[in-house]
Amino acid sequence: xxxxxxxxxxxxxxxxxxxxxxxAELDTAQRASxxxxxxxxxxxxxxxHCRSAAEAYAREISAPQRLDQRLQPxxxxxxxxxxxxxxETLARWEEEGFSQISQNKVAVLLLAGGQGTRLGxxxxxxxxxxxxxxxxxxxxxxxxxxxxxxxxxxxxYATKVTVPWYxxxxxxxxxxxxxxxxxxNYFNLDKRNVVMFEQRMLPAVTFDGxxxxxxxxxxxxxxxxxxxxxxxxxxxxILEDMExxxxxxxxxxxxxxxxxxxxxxxxxxxxxxxxxxCGAKVVEKAYPEEPVGVVCQVDGVYQVVEYSEISPEMVHxxxxxxxxxxxxxxxxxxFFTLNFLKTVAHTLEPQMKQHVAIKKVPFINEEGNLxxxxxxxxxxxxxxxxxxxxxxxxFVVFEVLREEEFSPLKNADTAEKDxxxxxxxxxxxxxxxxxxxxxxxxxxAAGFRIPDKxxxxxxxxxxxxxxxxxxxxYFGENLELYLKGKDIPSTFILxxxxxNALGKA
Length: 505
Ligand SMILES: CC(=O)N[C@H]1[C@@H](OP(=O)(O)OP(=O)(O)OC[C@H]2O[C@@H](n3ccc(=O)[nH]c3=O)[C@H](O)[C@@H]2O)O[C@H](CO)[C@@H](O)[C@@H]1O
Fold this sequence. Notes:
This is UDP-N-acetylhexosamine pyrophosphorylase-like protein 1. InterPro entries: Nucleotide-diphossugar_trans, UDP-sugar_pyrophosphorylase, UDPGP_fam. Belongs to the UDPGP type 1 family. Keywords: Nucleotidyltransferase, Transferase. One of its GO terms (molecular function) is UDP-N-acetylglucosamine diphosphorylase activity. This protein has an 8-stranded mixed β-sheet, sandwiched between helices. It has 2 domains: 337 residues, Spore Coat Polysaccharide Biosynthesis Protein SpsA, Chain A, CATH 3.90.550; 85 residues, Seminal Fluid Protein  PDC-109 (Domain B), CATH 2.10.10.100. It is globular and about 75 Å long. It has 15 helices and 25 strands. By secondary structure, the chain is of the alpha/beta class. The site of uridine-diphosphate-N-acetylglucosamine has 25 residues, from strand 15.
């Protein structure tokens, strides 16, 4: 590791000498830890990072960008849709997806480096239990969906199937995520097929371009955004690991959507059939102002545009069919070929846009006291995972049904939307619909039949509580085998044990 003198010299050259201001007060362990943090920061890059953060901030406050004149919606020939496709087409895409999965060519990649600040927990979001009857966490649900899709593909093609699970973590989430997986025996997945790696951390910077100390011997660091993925894939040799396993297609997704279909055969099949190198799953926006990014074209190039970047007129604009013109809500579910990821990670990544987040960053002041600022004082720079759409040679968009595939956990229960309550309800109402469709009927505690309500509105109470394990069904298939003509109590958990019991009844 570089010596103190070398590092002091480098920091001076980068205009960041203040980072060693409290050196004399640090004990041996604190000194070693600070030197460790500073040693991995290249001085030139640090200088450049601080300069561009300050510049980007100045641009942001002087002229917020409006993209109105440069926007175009996704052309219909590049837009596939579950809702608007016939059964045969959907079956063909699904078959293609299963075929690729059965050849062990498909991997899933979870973005799990975020801090879950809005949810207000100190541990990784994937460890959250939204209060399902089974008590399953998001990680457990995801692991079981992987096992199920492997089983389904394996059964169809009479072969042994592996869908490797790559998990991108950050300094905040790696340790607890690893421990959680070990404690839960990797949810019965083969641990050799669960590959965790870490994204980089970047210093938070003041408005005049100085890296911030959050303790006398510690920089304020934050993960470099979910677009840090591409750098992390190269730095951690993940692309080589994929290559070695014969992976061709990667389904990348974010941690908090309780309805996520891992390695979704329909989505994979659609993208493969279209010859896409890059694809995005979207849902119709629920209402014009919904705070989701929208997939569209800017100056002819695909990108996700945030709600704040377009005017209210554009947000509300509708086509002749009455639908919102900019309607393709990004749900952070992406398809990439391995070749595309290689090109991005090895060549194009430096061209990705840097986004500026202006935050309240606790800091150590001149006198050495910790200050928790009441107003924003710092800049965090992030890259976004979708900012690679511009590099795609054949980009496609796939629209799915929100009630079946998208219910994210973003906020604590004090908020109205995207909370533990709304995600739990979304999953349980899906399972209730599946159970009715399979021919089950529900009884209350006194044994009375509960009337069926197949078309529930978002606010109505669920008539019955039914949770179905992903190990029993991936997306509602084959449930007639266990539920047709059955009277089941509310609350009911259909898991593998229950399936055996019903089978024997
Ligand atoms: C940049 C991005 O993708 N934005 C999308 C994200 O917004 P949103 O603002 O919800 O994005 P989050 O900050 O929650 O991050 C999404 C995912 O990226 C992970 N993460 C985040 C930061 C980081 O440094 N490392 C990391 O791995 C998180 O753990 C999470 O799994 O999901 C919404 C739908 O739910 C979409 O409408 C947004 O367009």
